[in-house]
Amino acid sequence: MYRIMKKEVLSDVVKLMEIEAPHVARKAQAGQFVIVRIDEFGERIPLTIADFNREAGTITIIFQELGKSTIQLGKLNVGDTISSFAGPLGHPTEVKNYGTVVCMGGGVGVAPIYPIARALKEAGNTVISIIGARNKELLFWEEKMRAVSDELVVCTDDGSHGRKSLVTEPLKELLENRDKKVSHVWAIGPAVMMKFVTLTTKPYDVPTTVSLNTIMIDGTGMCGGCRVLLEDGAQFVCVDGPEFNGHKVNWDSLLSRLSFYKDEEKKAMEHYAHKCRLESAAAKGEK
Amino acid sequence: MTDMTTQQRMKIKRHEMPNQDQVVRRGNYTEVALGYSEETAKAEAERCLQCKDPKCISGCPVGVMIPQFIKALREGDMVKAVEWMKVKNNLPAICGRVCPQEVQCEGNCILGKKGEAVAIGRLERFVGDYELAHRTCPLVKAADTGKKIAVVGSGPAGLTCAVDLAREGHKVTLYESLHGPGGVLVYGIPEFRLPKAVVHGEISYAVDCLCIDLKTDHVIGRSFTLDELLAENDAVFLGTGAGLPSFMRIPGINLNGVMSANEFLTRVNLMKAYQFPDYDTPVRIGKKVAVIGAGNVAMDAVRCSKRLLSLQTGQGEAPGEAHIVYRRSKDEVPARKEEVHHAEEEGVIFNFLTNPVEIIGNEKGAVTGLKCIKMQLGEPDKSGRRQPVPVEGSEFVMEVDTVIMALGTNPNPIVFVDAEGLDRTKHGTAVADTETGRTKKKRVWAGGDVVTGAATVISAMGAGKRAAADMNAFLKGERTWE
Ligand SMILES: Cc1cc2nc3c(=O)[nH]c(=O)nc-3n(C[C@H](O)[C@H](O)[C@H](O)COP(=O)(O)OP(=O)(O)OC[C@H]3O[C@@H](n4cnc5c(N)ncnc54)[C@H](O)[C@@H]3O)c2cc1C
Ligand SMILES: Cc1cc2nc3c(=O)[nH]c(=O)nc-3n(C[C@H](O)[C@H](O)[C@H](O)COP(=O)(O)OP(=O)(O)OC[C@H]3O[C@@H](n4cnc5c(N)ncnc54)[C@H](O)[C@@H]3O)c2cc1C
Ligand code: SF4
Ligand code: SF4
Ligand code: FES
Is the residue at B143 inside a domain? Predict the structure, then answer.
């Protein structure tokens, strides 16, 4: 059992938790992830290691409430426990001095991009960050990102905060600007966003690393459910990634695989909502 | 009855195993083979001739003392029967259910030469179930030796090794990457063939009695490396199995609806997708499933599919189809005989001499068909086995929604990360001595599927046992490394 040590509400649908898991914290590095299973009935879901504290033996996770598992997780509080927490999994980010780098975070992707931006900054890079969300309410960690970036651009789809645009617009401007000489781009966010970031950088031939969020089960290379089609064949995201050269990813295949269990995810959510209603009705009945 | 003559014994017919009704069971996940009653077990035990030179024993990979346990059983001394069994086999309730007896113990039984072999596996299961229920042979821990051991992987190999070493008084930590112990016994082999209560019963009993420190969610190679374990322990055993799936190199493998048998079975068995949405993990198979391969893994996948098809509709008889697609003929099928027989009874359709060449999908990226080519058996090759060769122009398309690949597995390399000096073959298996389990790396032993590649439960257990014996001798200073 792994205890929740801290909980923060970052936005309506985004929550942060610090989990006590010394076996993960001792080795964790930026770019890696954990597999979380809430209880005996739970599925195994992958979440990025947003931060870690080796001394305290804790891991910070940040998740967006999308469906059954993440909503259920969001209901837990400090002192509650979850049954499984395995990691650190996947390869860490390759941090070195590239020169000028752009770190892009879309939606909940701001969380995993933060430790990467911080590490790249510490390695001597000039870090330009671009973060975006659908609206102001969904945006978080603007100040934290500013602190590790030489320059920060904030966008929202609806213009409720920062610039009204998709994150790809300022990126394109940067790439056009010859003084900046961008040598590497990182992008983490929804698959569609990462797809368009790679399409934007491709004509400029700027290496672009993306962190893929396929559906996973074991997270250790055992099932092949997380496989992604690259130019030169299929690879397993959990052991070969999660970071890949974005220009080689077959995005249409990835997007189609992500949506395979849509109907079942809806069913799981309905079943859960029904159970919650029954439980709260029973609790009221007791009083 | 013990004064029967050989002729009389040979006249007794082998006793059938009572099974769950073949139509009813297509719609549930409960055990198919129901087990002998005490009466039937004793009657079956009477068939054994108590051979002076018992051939059955040499057929068993761990040399279970078969005539001895059978004699005790028929004399009604169950405590003795369990004791004889446990000399060589820690997990009879499991082996009795899943060993390929027809090619091992029973395949060598003298009675099988002319008629039918003694049902050794079924008797073993009876003895194992008796022990599970009564615990007549308690596990006792010897005085603490002060030695520390790390066992990696909690499948049959790791489990057996951990138990044997803990009994000797060593302090054993058992590391498992998944959220629960058992390895293939839990994530691969389905409930209807090996009830999880049996596996968990054996594991929790051993862990509790012997104070084994079980650490789940620990991926060795990630949370800790092998060298880190070595620094903190006197010896390490690797029983990490062969869990890495392979996919056929044909077009279309990344379509939605194509899965490895490992993914499918893990969803269904470990994550209990057959009870979705009470359990969160779903599995989707549509109405027609093709399983490629014909080993135990393929049989489990196809029989799970058959049941899911029924469960989806809530009807006893499934409206859909579950197929086996295999490029050789029925004679070459590697699965246990009983599984093939059960699959046939349950309405699985077998397509022999059929080889997939392409998976076909629609514009949404979902599987719609499996293109295959017919095969025929050609000239025998060097090994004397007739190789299948394609029949030109015989391509055809099977309409299916799901394709499950059960093509064999290789060891997962994660555990070897940064583990210098540990030799591996080109197939990725660890190099280890068959007798002792010693690897090329000092104080590291290995056994089970990680050394042999995908094999059997009993051979993995045997390897765990042999390694434990050598590790114990090494730790006590009776043997040196070189
Ligand atoms: C390596 C890795 C790291 C990840 N890190 C994070 C993280 O730090 N924070 C975070 O919030 N999420 C992260 N994800 C995604 C996260 O695992 C999923 O959001 C989660 O599994 C959804 O579970 P659910 O039951 O709540 O929703 P579901 O009911 O499973 O899904 C609800 C909706 O989300 C979509 N969805 C399902 N799975 C994914 C997925 N893997 N990626 C994107 N969309 C999905 C579905 O199509 C559906 O529309 C990561 C995924 C991977 C592979
Ligand atoms: C579907 C299926 C059906 C089968 N049916 C039969 C049958 O009927 N009869 C039969 O005799 N055999 C059968 N087999 C084969 C048999 O199950 C295996 O040969 C046997 O389980 C091997 O045991 P093992 O202990 O070597 O490995 P496994 O059972 O594979 O156990 C290895 C364990 O190590 C863990 N692990 C792996 N890497 C790490 C790591 N880095 N850190 C920590 N833990 C790790 C794994 O999660 C796993 O729990 C079947 C196999 C499958 C897949
Ligand atoms: S362990 Fe397996 S092979 Fe050996 S006697 Fe028992 S059933 Fe037969
Ligand atoms: S070979 Fe058959 S008959 Fe002879 S001892 Fe073994 S089980 Fe009994
Ligand atoms: S999640 Fe199973 S292989 Fe990657």
Answer: no
DSSP E strands, B85-234: 148-152, 171-175, 213-215
| pTM (2 d.p.) | 0.93
DSSP B119-144: -HHHHHHHHHHHHHHH--S---PPSP
Which domain does B67 fall in, by range? 6-134
Tell me how many degrees the CA angle B13-B15-B17 measures, rounded to the nearest 5.
Answer: 155
Amino acid at residue number B222: R
Q: In what order do the strands lie in the sheet with A100-106?
A: A163-164, A151-156, A126-133, A100-106, A182-188, A208-211, A243-245
Partner-chain residue, chosen from B267, B279, B412, that has the shortest CB–CB distance to A221: B412
The complex scores an ipTM of 0.92
Among the listed residues A119, A80, A75, the one whose alpha carbon sits nearest the alpha carbon of residue A101: A119
pLDDT (tens digit per residue) in B396-448: 999 999 999 999 889 999 998 888 888 999 889 999 999 999 999 999 999 99
Decide if B387 is inside a domain. yes
pLDDT digits (tens, 9 = 90+) for A93-123: 999 999 999 999 999 999 999 999 999 999 9
Right CATH for A2-89 from 2.40.30.10, 2.60.120.560, 3.20.20.370, 2.60.40.1120: 2.40.30.10
In a domain, B159, yes or no: yes
Range B195-217 average pLDDT = 93
List of chain B residues whose C-beta atoms are within 8 Å of the C-beta of residue A240: none
The CATH number of domain A100-211 is 3.40.50.80: yes
Beta-carbon separation of A23 and B215 below 8 A: yes
**Domain CATH for B349:** 3.50.50.60
Kindly report the nearest CA distance between residue B273 and chain A, in angstroms.
Answer: 10
Residues with CB under 6 A from ligand 2: B 98-100, 152-158, 175-178, 183-184, 188-189, 218-221, 239-241, 243, 265, 296-297, 300, 336, 412, 414-415, 448-450, 454-458, 460
Q: Are residues A261 and B284, on separate chains, in Cβ contact within 8 Å?
A: yes
B119 plus B186 within the same structural domain:
no
User: Out of A49-58, A133-142, B147-156, which region has the weakest mean confidence (pLDDT)?
Assistant: A133-142
